[in-house]
Structures are given as C-alpha cells and as structure tokens.
Amino acid sequence: MSVLSYAVFTDPAPLQISQPDAPSVGSVYVTVSNSNATEVRWDYIAVDVPSGSGSGDVTDDVTAIDPRIETDYTPAAGEEAAQFTYVSTRGNFLAAAPSLRRITLPPGGSFTLILENIPISGVAGLARLKIREYARCDGSQPMQLRHIAFALPKSTPKIPRNFRADTTLVDVDAGDTVTLRWDGPDNLDYWIRTPDGQEELAQKAGSGPGVALTSYQWPVSRTPVRGTTYTLVGRAPQSAGQPDRGYFLTTTVHARIPEFESGTRTPWIEEADNAGRVAFSPTGVDITSGGTLGTVTADEGILMSALRTKRARGLDDTDGWIEFPADGIKVGHGGGHDVGVVTAERVSANGVNTTWVQGRDTGDGWISFPQSGVHVYKDGKREWGTVDADTADLNGVLTKWVQGRGDSAGWIEFPAAGVNVFQGAGNRQWGTVAADKADLNDLDTVRARVKERLVLQGGLTVAGVMETQESPSRLVVHGRLDTEGELNATGNVVAGGDLTVHGDLRPMRNLEVAGAVTAGDLTVRDKLTTVGADFRLTVHGESLFAGKVNANGHLSVRNGTDWLMHVNDDQVAIQSNLRIHGESLFSGKMNANGNLSVRNGTDWLMHVDNEQVAIQGNLRVHGAFRSDN
Length: 629
What we know:
Structural class: mainly beta
Strand content: 35-45%
Distance between the termini: 227 Å
Shape: rod-shaped
Radius of gyration: 72 Å
Number of helices: 0
Helix content: under 10%
Number of strands: 50
C-alpha cells in the first residue's frame, strides 16, 4: 500500500483514439495527497506512460507530452519546490526536488502531476499508467519504494465530431463548390439540415456488428451565395421521427460576394481594411473614407429625382469638374481652379457670361467680349475674323472695312476722311456704288458716272475746275472743258479760258470763249465770231463752212507750219492751189500768180497757165470784156 493517496483523471474520459487524418489529443491528471495524520517525507515519484502503437499504449510519442506540477501547499523551510519533468535517460516522468533532496508533504497537503497534449495512439484498448513512489510516513520508518498502477481506457469515439466544410469561403462567380465532411461512428443516421430547416439524409447507419469510426462527406448541391450555416444531425436509427434527439454539429460557409434575395438591414458596411464605409441614414446613404466623405465609383448612376452635390468630376485627378455655387454652375479642369470647357450638342440658356467663345477646335474662330462690345477673331489667334449672318440689326458698326461674301466681291473701307469703295479683284481698284438715291451734302470725286439722270438741287462745284450758279443759272468752267461726245447748250456758253472739242460742239445760241478754241471737228449752225485782236480761230484739220465765213480780222489757212491762204484786210492771198467746187463770186480782182483751173466735175473748163488762158467750153461775157491783145 502506498504512503500517499493517488487519483487519476483523463480528458476526455475515456481517451479517444486517433483516426487517419483526425489525430486525438488528451490529458492525464494525477493528484497526489497526504491523507495521513503526520507529514510524509518523499524523494521522488516516477510516472511511466506506456509508449507504442499497441492497444495497451497511451501514445506513440512520449516526447510530445508537456509535463507540469501544481501544488496547494508551501514548501517547508529550507526545502525546494518540487518539479515534474521528463527524464529521457529513464524514459519516464519524474517529480522531485531539483537537487533530488527529500521533500516534506504536510498532512492534508496535495499536488497534481499534469500530462498535457498527449497524442493518443490509434488502437483502442486498456493502457496502464504506472507510478513508483519513494517515501515514508513515520520518521522511524525507512524510505520504501512502492508501485501503483491505474487503468487508462482508450476507446473509439461514439459521437460525431470534426464537422467542417472543405472550404469556408466560396466564390460563386468562379464556380466554387462545397463539400461537407465529418467523422463519427457508423451506427448513426446522419442528416444535413439547411438554414431553412429542411433536412436531407446524408448517410444511413451501418447494419454490421460493432461500431467503427468512419469519415463521411456530402457534396452541397447548390453553392451558397451568402453566409450559410449547415447542421449535422446524428441520430440513432430508433430515434427517427424525433427531430430534437441526437447529436448536433454546425459549420458555416461564407460567400466572397454575398447575395441576398430580399435585402440586408445594417447600419453600415465597411471595407475589410477600414478604408471606406457606407452608412445608412434615415435620409439615404453616406459614403465615408477615414472619417470624411468618400468617393463613389460606378459605371452608370441613375437617379429618379435629383442629385445634390457640391462638386462633380471625372475619374482622373486631371479630368474636368463641375461645382455648384449659389449662383449656378462652374466648370473647371485639373487639380486647381482653372476654368474648363463645356462640350454639348446644344445649350439653351437665358444668358451667357463669358470672357470668350470659340469653335470646337483650337484653330477655329473665337469671340471675345470686352466692355465696349464684341470682338471676332480667326484661326485661334488674335487676328480679326469674319462674321457671317443672314441679317444683322445693329445701331452702329465700327469697322475698318466691309466686303461681300466672296473674295472677289467688292469691299468698303472707312478712312478718316469718309468711305472708300473698291472692286473685289485687283489691288485697291476703285469700285462702283449703286443706289436708288443718294442724299449727299458734298460729293468729292475723281470721276462720276450717271446711267440715267443726275439731279443736283443745290448745285455742283468741282474745286478749281467748274461750278454751277443760280440767278441766272449757268455752268462756270474755271479751266478747260473737254467733251469727248456732243455738247448741247440751249443757252449761252461762255468759256473763260480755252475750249477744246474732240467731237461735235453744237451751241444752240451764242458760244463765248475767252481763250483759244481747239476742235477736231467744229460745226457752227449760226455764226462763229472771234472778237478782238488777240483772238483767233485756228483750224488744224479740214474745215467745212456751210454758210458764210466772216473774218473781220485775219483768216489764215495753214498746212502744218506753212500757210496756204491769208485773208488780210481786203486781200485774199493763196499760196497753193485754190479749188472751188461750187459757184464762186469774186467782187474784186483775183490774182493767180500760179495756175488757175476751173472745172466742171472732172472735166476742166478753163486753164490759166502762165501767160495763157485756155477755155474748153463756151465763154459768155455779160458785161464789158477787155483784152490787152
């Protein structure tokens, strides 16, 4: 009989043997107490744990066991506290003082030797835990070695265990599947209960003698789309119809992307790393990140009523953005506050306040709005551009020049002096002004052309050249008057200077010329009078006088620089031939220093040649006839 009292407990009780892929671990507790009335002196207590793979072995790896000691007494003075360790040279566990000196256990004192994390062997059976104590109770008695043995039963598990899913996080979109696995005795019916309370028989109990621990599996027919808890129910066959009887084990499978048929109620949803959170307030949804408002990223957003936001921008930090100040909308771009560009098919606005407006491309025309009005530019540069419109209703136009639609159209410029009209072709060639009526205070022109009738109510003045006067009405030419066509004057025509006529000059009444008259052809229907010694009538070409020619002064007919005929006072001198085609009357003498011929058409009638007078036809003398010979 041992001096000390021993009690042995196991966890679990009994110990469960290990199964393939399902190792079993247990613990053994040995409580040592002094039930004597006197103290017990002891040197050591050795515990032998059977090691091997047989039915009588507790474990096949004794070195994996963790030993320790717990005491409920205070060591006597001068004594060491006991230790419980594995002694590899002995192959057992030893409780003793570190110095192996004797230890005193007072009456009623106790301590527990603990063996934890014991890998239980895989064969059921009865193992024996052997203990050897070296102690004495009475000081007069010698130390004795005593042997004690305790039975440690090892059994096959009689209940299901280790119910699990081969994967606890599935991705339905990736095609993941789930298989449920468990270990248990084969004398039970196994059912799988789904979250909706429905049960499906997964494995029916075996019919052979004895009980064996078996591993089972059951593939889930439909992969869960959200967190789903499965319940394994193990029942004895005779308990069928009694849903509350049996063994119940649960396992849960989660979906990587959960899906809910009816909805989810939660105050908020947060990202795994606490970066972003969606909170559900009574008025809607709040998106935050790090305690501040966050960002919503979506392919498309559809709002049924309205969108309220302080600012909206594109996906990138350099994209455009829209702000909503109190007075409307502000469009910008980039990370700063630069104003951006609005691109739209059509804009309907009551008003637009902008510094400038440009076409779609950077090289298009653009319009700026200075305080004074509107500026139109071209080619994306600050060069004046062109305004095209069907109608422009303006109170005034300030422009350097105006041109028709095409490059060949005429154009108008506005110098400081007034208006210049040019043709479209050429280089600043004067153009034509066409109008139904022109009301002008003054007309300064180099040349004017009137297609029908020019009516001047106030008069016409050509500076330094001509002017019209009233009372009496007359045209005063200060210089030379050149007319390439006919000039008809129903009244008097007075020329203060020279008069040159390239065509016909037909004055209906008197024509007074203060200077010389130069004409290619001059026709005078009534009289042509030159007055004064300084005035002459010079005809450089052929002259036809249908009536009489009265020359109160000299009359000279020249051929180039030589004179042909002179009329001076009462003499007519002819230096060349004199031909008279009509009737001729000589009131005085006629001296012919050269030949004198009188013809009738093409035939000659009379010749005066030197000293002879030859008459081819009849000679009639109505008055006196005198002949020196």
